[in-house]
Structure formats: structure tokens, C-alpha cells
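Item description
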Amino acid sequence: MTLAETARAVRAGERSAREIVDEHLALIADRDGALHAFNHVMTDDARAAADEVDRRVAAGDDPGSLAGVGVALKDNMCTRGVPTTCSSRILEHWHPPYDATILSRLAAAGAVMVGKTNLDEFAMGSSTENSAFGPTCNPHDPTRVPGGSSGGSAAAVAAGFVPAAFGSDTGGSIRQPAALCGVVGVKPTYGRVSRYGLVAFASSLDQIGPFAASVEDAALLFEVVAGHDPLDSTSVPEPAPSVVDGLGDGVEGLRVGLTKEFVEGADADVVARVEEAARALEKAGAIVSEASVPAAVYGLSAYYLIAPAEASSNLARYDGVRYGLRVDGDDITDMYTATRAAGFGAEVKRRIMLGTYALSAGYYDAYYGQAQRVRTLIIRDFEAAYADHDLLLGATSPTTAFEIGAKTENPLTMYLSDVFTIPSNLAGHPAISVPYGTGDDGLPVGVQVLAPALAEPLMFRAAAALERSLS
């Protein structure tokens, strides 16, 4: 059943929200021990929320467009009174005093929050191996990674634990795990979905978005959570568009650019799937031609200066004074040092040090300033590409899911997992990963549809056409 069908059944009294949530909880209890998609399962809260949905249906009220739908949130989104750890020891026992806007909007639509999912610590990683609480495994092959940093959310949907989940995407952290787990993953336009209550990694790049089993389900989730939020100063000051109604409009006449920078260096089987997707869009009536975003090849280098620099600033608040872990020392400097040494993992420390160096006196212009100039070049090259094309097409990840432990000893190799996704974050543009067949190893391949800022309706239309071409 689609999310809309599930909600209709609950609203009509044909199914109870309590029955649905109990099914989710039973699956998680039975199988998540082997996968570790969840950091925290909200058993009592989920049942109470489901009972409230059923009470409202019985009273003749309409709980909303997601009535009874089970949802999971990445464990870097604040949930009042429920642990929000960012998969870090430094926040292991922190219970936020407020809810993130995304949770409030989901609850208002009748969704039932089932739990908080595992991630790379503070969303820094591409495999969910950097979690302080252990890695998440790919449901298609538990010896492989699910991608990252939102690997727990992607795995939860791929395993069927929940039909919907949310992650955050700073450099590909929704789209890359969606590709590796064979689900749909959406990074909206920067500011389209409120970041209020999202624990910050890199504030000019972070964006919340949905995971789902289908484009239609992802579109419905987007409609529920998108839109202006006065609590987020970077929120787009206009209502979100409808995207569900246009899913069947097709791609007739749309100009789609097969972008060379988003396939170069990918494995041959991944490139083959992208080329098949291009032919499918052409068969459906799109005008497909070659496209280029030349400065995108510098995206990885720019990102790994800008994102760590912003992380260095954002993570300075974890000092053992206000909240989170505190390790006492002889004086305040010793306490700071001991707290951060014990609380942060190796990858987080690596990025804090890199970011602090890039922002330091004498190096700011050479590193951070130069990276921001490269960011501007990427934005301009995207603008040039979109002058000739309505949408762009490429691979989401250069490879299918790799083995757990295969890249942990070489950070640069791990960073290359996001080479095709990072440019959209630097530009602030939307992009979606759609499952499109499998690689030679039988594991899922994701194809990425990229769109100009605020062009989500067009992006979802093309994604739906790709999905239909496989049926």
C-alpha cells in the first residue's frame, strides 16, 4: 500500500493505526538486531500516538494525510523528551526540551513516530560506520554499508521497518544511502524544509528530506513537511508547491541533460544504468542531450573546506558546560579537552581540526575564502547548464554498496562516495535519487535527477517517469 492508501484506510476506519504501528514494532524487534537501523525505538510513545489517531477517527475527526503512517527520524532531529544523540557519546544522554518543526508537521498530519535512526556521528560520513553506537548494515546484504550519513533511515525503509523516514543531506547524506539501499531519497531546495530542531553540521548546506519506497510516497512526504517556517531564518518565504498532482504529467518536451561530470569515474555498471535511464526518458518524450557543469569537479575539494569550517563553529557549543557529556578536569581548559576527547569520534575530530585550520588567521583567504569562490563558480556553471536544460541526469553514487570496513582506513576514498551529490548542496538546488536496476553484484543502483532551485514539481515528474519506465 502507498502512504496515501494507508492513510485512507485508517481515516475510513478500515485499519487501525495501533494495528499498523504494532506491525512496525514487531518487525523492528525481530530484525533490527542484525541491521541496527535504529538508535532508539519509541515503543510507548508510538502506541500512544497511534491510539490518539484511532480516537480521532472514532470521534469523526480527520487526523490528516498521513494518518497512521509510521515514520522514523534520523537521530539528529530534536524530539522532546526523547534521546537525540547524533550517534555521538557527547550527546548520548541528551533529551531535547522541544520538537523539531519537521516532527510537529508530521504529527499534525497524523503520522506516528516510531523511532530515531542511526547515522554517522554528527552526520559526518558516507557509510554509517562512524556512529559511536556501531554501524548499520545494508538490508540487501548485511556485509555491506547502507551509505551515509543517513544510513539508518535508508535501511529502515529498505528493510520494511517503516514506510517513511527522514534524513539530513549536507553533501549527499540522503541521496547516497537511498541509492545504496534501493529506495527513493530527496534533497529539497535549501530552505524549502525547515531546519529548526536539526542539530547543525554545516548550516549553509544542511537540508532535511524524505526516504520512501516510491516517488509518490516521497512526494506526499515532501508536501507535508515543506513550506515556510518563521522559526528558521533561512526558510524560503513562500508556500511549498504541490508535487503529487503532477506526478503523472510525464516528461514530453522536457530538456534533460545527461551530465558528464556526474558519471565520470563511476563503475561501468552504474554508468550503464544511468544511460538506460536517459534512454527511458527519451522514449517517454524528453529531449535528452549532453550537458556539463565544469566546476563540479572541484566540488569535493570546496566542500571539504566549507563543511568542516562550519562544523568547527557549530560544534564549539559541545564544551561540557551547558549540556551533553562532561568529563571533569583540574581546570576549565582540562575539562574542555577531556570532554571533547572522550565525546567526539575520530572523524568528527578530523573535520573540526581541518575546519579550524581553514578558518585560522593567515589561512582564511587561501582556503575557506577560495572554497567559497569555487562554490560561486559551481553555481554559475549550474545556471549555464539550466539555460539549455530543464533538468540534469547523472549517477547518485559512483559504486554500489561497498563492504563494511573497506574504506574506513582511507578517508579520501570514503569522501569520494559523495562526489556526484555534493555540487547540489553547494548550489542549494534540489535533487532526487531513484532506484534504477542493479549493478553486476545484484545490489541497487540509484539514478539522480537534478533540478534548479525551487523546481521540485519538475524534478518529481521526471523521477516518476523514470520509476514508471521500470514497471
Summary: The CA atoms of residues 26 and 161 lie 9 Å apart. The chain has 15 helices and eleven strands. The chain has a mean pLDDT of 97. The domain at 3-225 is CATH 3.90.1300.10 (Amidase signature (AS) enzymes).
